[in-house]
Automatic annotation (TrEMBL):
<keyword id="KW-0677">Repeat</keyword>
<keyword id="KW-1015">Disulfide bond</keyword>
<dbReference type="InterPro" id="IPR003599">
    <property type="entry name" value="Ig_sub"/>
</dbReference>
<dbReference type="InterPro" id="IPR007110">
    <property type="entry name" value="Ig-like_dom"/>
</dbReference>
<keyword id="KW-0393">Immunoglobulin domain</keyword>
<keyword id="KW-0131">Cell cycle</keyword>
<dbReference type="GO" id="GO:0005819">
    <property type="term" value="C:spindle"/>
</dbReference>
<dbReference type="GO" id="GO:0007098">
    <property type="term" value="P:centrosome cycle"/>
</dbReference>
<dbReference type="InterPro" id="IPR003598">
    <property type="entry name" value="Ig_sub2"/>
</dbReference>
<keyword id="KW-0732">Signal</keyword>
<dbReference type="InterPro" id="IPR013783">
    <property type="entry name" value="Ig-like_fold"/>
</dbReference>
<dbReference type="Pfam" id="PF13927">
    <property type="entry name" value="Ig_3"/>
</dbReference>
<dbReference type="InterPro" id="IPR013106">
    <property type="entry name" value="Ig_V-set"/>
</dbReference>
<keyword id="KW-0013">ADP-ribosylation</keyword>
<feature type="transmembrane region" description="Helical">
    <location>
        <begin position="12"/>
        <end position="30"/>
    </location>
</feature>
<keyword id="KW-0132">Cell division</keyword>
<dbReference type="GO" id="GO:0051301">
    <property type="term" value="P:cell division"/>
</dbReference>
Length: 488
């Protein structure tokens, strides 16, 4: 109603302008001014052209192709705009299939709907809205829907649009089948993966490996619709989780992931030990030590392992299984050679690795661990021995060279002390002999010559003692008090 109120003044303006030009043209015809007549005729046609454009009808649809789900309602949205006063608005919906004539579904004039009795319960139209509701949607409803709108006002104008409706069935979860299901040997057999889906229309197939899209490659071959994947030939690198993703315009589902069985190996055979040092293919162990060796290789199915000992240019199997325990007490030689052999009974391939065991009296590992403690102990021991030697040297030096100390003391005393010294006999008063004496042993004549000849005359001497003399020297006399009592 608001649109009609806007368009009404515009139509009256055009009509008033048209009447004005008619009157002006008539007056010009009377005056026979042909140039003005031609000018006003052009202006008149221009206004009629503008009025025709302004009053044109335009239909709009969101999309010319719409996908619907079977069993669900579907709405075909249509909008129209007109720039003129409408007395009557007629809406008509038609349905056509390829290579067939259109069928009338329903129509309306203003607010009155006139359906086809065959489809009156299936299609719904609520004018002045031109949108069509289809409920429910069936596969048979797939085709082209034509909408036509007629508007009659000052004249009759019409517009139409065509919408293609595709009806799809949602896909169900697909299932992947593997052939052969028992597994194949790499570089020998092939694997075929087939994807099947129970329901769904316009299904698109996409293969996935470990959750990522799988594209064609040297050994990947897809069928025309991608429903089948062929791996020719299989290799270890083809191991993974495969799945099939199916989709259509209204749904998408992914299958359960499967991992085809591929037999391969052995690859990367190696030997490890639980203790000792290992450099390349050489292992060390201590005497009395038990070392557990482990042999492993990448393979499917798991390998069978055998341990072989080599001695004196002969070999013999000593144990089966992935583990071997070697006790150094049982090893007579310092070195011994072993072989670990792996065999895959599915691929028929085998591999072996050689290694040597060296028995040491003090294992390299312990020496490496005790290196720090031994170095500190050696330093302490060296210092202790040095101190002991120094003490012994000092003891010997003092023990066998005491005369040098005595000589130094005698040489340091002045000769006046020797002159003051007096010699006493044993017959004199014992009180006069009281004092502190020092026993001096002079081993040679040179030292004895320092004693005064006067002192030696009065002293008792013993024959045969020329090499060793004895001197009694009074170092300190009686204290002054005792000396005075003696004089009295």
């Amino acid at each position: 109603m608001g649109q009609d109120a806007f368009m009404e003044p515009f139509s009256q303006l055009i009509l008033t302008t048209f009447i004005f030009f008619i009157n002006f043209l008539y007056s010009q015809l009377v005056s026979l001014n042909l140039s003005y007549i031609l000018l006003f005729l052009i202006v008149y046609l221009f206004f009629n052209f503008c009025a025709g454009i302004c009053s044109a009808l335009k239909l709009t649809v969101p999309s010319h192709t719409i996908h619907g789900i079977e069993g669900q309602p579907l709405r075909l949205t249509v909008d129209y705009n007109l720039n003129t006063t409408a007395c009557e608005i007629q809406i008509i919906w038609l349905f056509e299939k390829p290579q067939s004539n259109p069928k009338y579904l329903l129509g309306s004039v203003n607010q009155t709907v006139v359906p086809d009795l065959e489809y009156q319960h299936k299609f719904t139209l609520i004018p002045p809205n031109a949108s069509l509701m289809i409920n429910p949607l069936r596969i048979s409803d797939e085709g082209n829907y034509i909408v036509k709108v007629n508007v009659r006002g000052n004249g009759t104008i019409a517009a139409s649009e065509k919408i293609q409706v595709a009806v799809d069935v949602p896909v169900t979860q697909p299932v992947v089948h593997t052939e052969p299901s028992s597994g194949v040997v790499e570089y020998v057999g092939n694997i075929t993966l087939k994807c099947t889906v129970g329901k769904g229309t316009r299904v698109v197939y996409q293969w996935m490996k470990n959750g990522k899209p799988l594209h064609a490659g040297p050994n990947y071959i897809f069928s025309s619709n991608n429903a089948t994947l062929l791996i020719v030939p299989v290799a270890k690198e083809d191991i993974g989780n495969y799945s099939c993703l199916v989709s259509n315009p209204v749904s998408a589902m992914e299958s359960e992931r499967i991992a085809p069985t591929i037999y391969y190996g052995p690859y990367g055979l190696r030997v490890k030990s639980d203790r000792g040092l290992n450099v390349g293919a050489v292992f060390t162990m201590d005497i009395g030590e038990a070392v557990l060796f482990d042999c492993s290789a990448d393979s499917n199915p798991p390998n069978t392992y055998s341990w072989i000992q080599r001695a004196d240019n002969t070999t013999h199997v000593i144990q089966y299984g992935p583990h071997l325990e070697v006790v150094s007490n049982t090893v007579a030689q310092k070195t011994r050679d072993y072989v670990c052999r792996a065999f895959n009974n599915m691929t028929g391939k085998r591999d072996e690795t050689h290694f040597t065991v060296i028995v040491t009296s003090a294992g390299l590992e312990k020496l490496a661990q005790e290196g720090k403690s031994l170095s500190s102990l050696a330093v302490i021991t060296g210092i202790s021995l040095f101190l002991i030697l120094v003490m012994v040297f000092l003891f010997i030096w003092k023990r066998y060279q005491p005369h040098k100390v005595i000589q130094q003391k005698l040489q340091s005393r002045p000769e006046a002390d020797y002159r003051k010294a007096q010699t006493f006999s044993g017959h004199e008063s014992a009180l006069d002999d009281f004092g502190i004496y020092e026993f001096v042993a002079i081993p040679d004549r040179a030292s004895g010559s320092r004693v005064s000849s006067q002192s030696l005359r009065g002293a008792d001497s013993v024959p045969g003692q020329d090499m060793l003399s004895t001197v009694y020297e009074v170092i300190q006399h009686i204290p002054n008090q005792q000396q005075q009592e003696h004089q009295q």
